Amino acid sequence: MQIPKELPSLVLSQQDRAKIDKLLGEYVKTVHVSYVLLAQKDGQFITKQGASGNVDLETVAALAAGAYMVSWQMARALGKDDFNVVYHEGDKDKVQLSQVDDRTVLAVVFDDRATLGMVRLYAKNLTRQLQPILAQGVPRVQDRAR
Fold first, then answer.
1. Which residue of 2, 74, 124, 133 is surrounded by the most CB atoms within 10 Å?
2. SS (H, E, C) 21-49
């Protein structure tokens, strides 16, 4: 993965956002995670599904993007191209960060109701489903720059 110096803001149509929210909602219900959040790698919050309570989602998006970028730098230091998945485990909650594309990160927050294997398996499928939807935002961003 090559990180551009400045990431363009992602512009999504209402239809694209509805498709993304539907996919995220299905993931939450199927895998029994607390919530799932989609963020740009510059830390901008895109959307979320599930019960996040009083969590500051803007802060979580920024920290998820930062954590993912730190792992990207670690991969480079180790002579690797990238780490596609980053995992954090606390006493009660766990967080998995997955690269969706060059601009976005998926953050999954879960507890003991979901297994890590299910989270990873379904997240991999989810990222594949999100990629073509998110790719539709690229031309709109480029068109706006002209």
1. 133
2. HHHHHHHHHHHCCCEEEEEECCCCEEEEE
| pTM, rounded to two decimals | 0.85
What is the Cα 129 distance to its own chain's centre?
Answer: 12
Provide the 3-class DSSP secondary structure of residue 86: strand
Q: What is the pLDDT of residues 80-97, one digit of tens each?
A: 887 888 899 999 999 999
Distance CA 74, CA 57 (A): 25
Adjacency order of strands within the sheet including 45-50? 45-50, 35-40, 104-110, 94-99, 85-89
Q: Which residue has the tokens 């690797």?
A: 80
Amino acid at residue number 23: L
Q: Which CATH superfamily is domain 14-138 in?
A: Dynein light chain 2a, cytoplasmic (3.30.450.30)
